Amino acid sequence: MKSNITREEFSKEVGRLFEEFAEEVWQAVVELESDVQRCDEWMRDKGSACLREVLGKALSQRAEVLGVLGACECGAAMEFRQRRPFRVHTVLAGRDVELSVLYGQCCECRQGNYPLLEGMKVDREGFTQALQELSLLAGVIEPYRSASEQLLRKFTGVEVSSEKIVNMVRGDGKRAEAFSKEPAERAEPETGEIDKGPLYIGIDGGMVFVDRRWQEVKLGCLYTEQGRIESKSGRGELTERQVVGVRGNPEALGEVLWPRSCAMGAEHRKVVILGDGAPWIWNLAEELFVDRVEILDWYHADENISRLARVVFGEGTDEAAQWRQSQLDRLAEDAVDEVTEGLRFLKKRHRSKRKAVNTLSGYLEKNKHRMKYRTFRENGYFIGSGAVESAVSHVMQQRMKRTGMRWRANGADSMLALRCVYRSTGAWDSFWNYRKQAV
Question: What residue segments make up the domains of the chain, in order of their start?
């Protein structure tokens, strides 16, 4: 293609390419010169090759239109030096697009630039923004090798090495960490009315193998009544949620939890904290939220009751099941004191199990004001933390705790930040816009 052409000349040349492509399609598909069972795959590959050639011609002409004239950052004028061939990597099957770009250089400081490439924001290896996002997302969803060989190569026909994906995760993971600490803009309702329903924040932790030892990741899952539905089984399922997480201390979690809670209206809502009883959860809640309700989630209350039932009465016995159900019935009616009183009697009967009984007794005593389940239900509050339990699974276990996985600190933190963005409703697009402004 000439260095400068008219629109009519461009259209004529593109038309010729598609006429040639139409002839290939006729011969390959209609006259059955290829395997018709895989004609769609053939069409993807051949069609993309044609589109890549057209895109290369269009981008080459775009480079001519942009030119290199203008001022350098130092204030001196930019001067044209030469046209250079360049290969851009795209999301089109086959990936590579050949084009010609103009290179300019400052007449004073000798700084060079490629206006077209800077405008496209390709990276150093020539990956377009679209391919950068696709490659990063593949690495966030799947382990690096399967992201490269399955998600990208098989599904899209694009070759991206696992090493490239690793490097992208490390770089963009840092941006995701910064993004999570940014004050998020709160979306105003279309009606203009402010929803004052409670904001639920489930807080929990999970273990990941980092730097040759198991380390705790702390997670927060934020949602509202509007983002939760009842499934056919009666369990609550979230349709909208925000997830934040850190590998660090509670204060580090607070740094990412606070801006997300503000974006969801924590300043004008009652904040309901659901947790498993770990003291750091309640200490963090006290530090961040004044108008709050603290609830020891029902699942963990049941879990602790059930554990003692197995220890005292035996695994799977009728006596264990009956005792467990009796205690849960009492908890459901705000009768925590009746449960603890019964534990005193149980300790006398089973002296060899006193340590286990004392453990549960202390647990209930510390959290009894968080276990008024009938009162909570009467006030319309959810009492289960399945949302954050699910978040731990979705964010960590599905990607970071697969068989044999071992992490370095930087890689783990980067992946955690990106997984939190990925599992938060609508957050990926917001992050990518933030990321495009940062590069």
Answer: 300-370
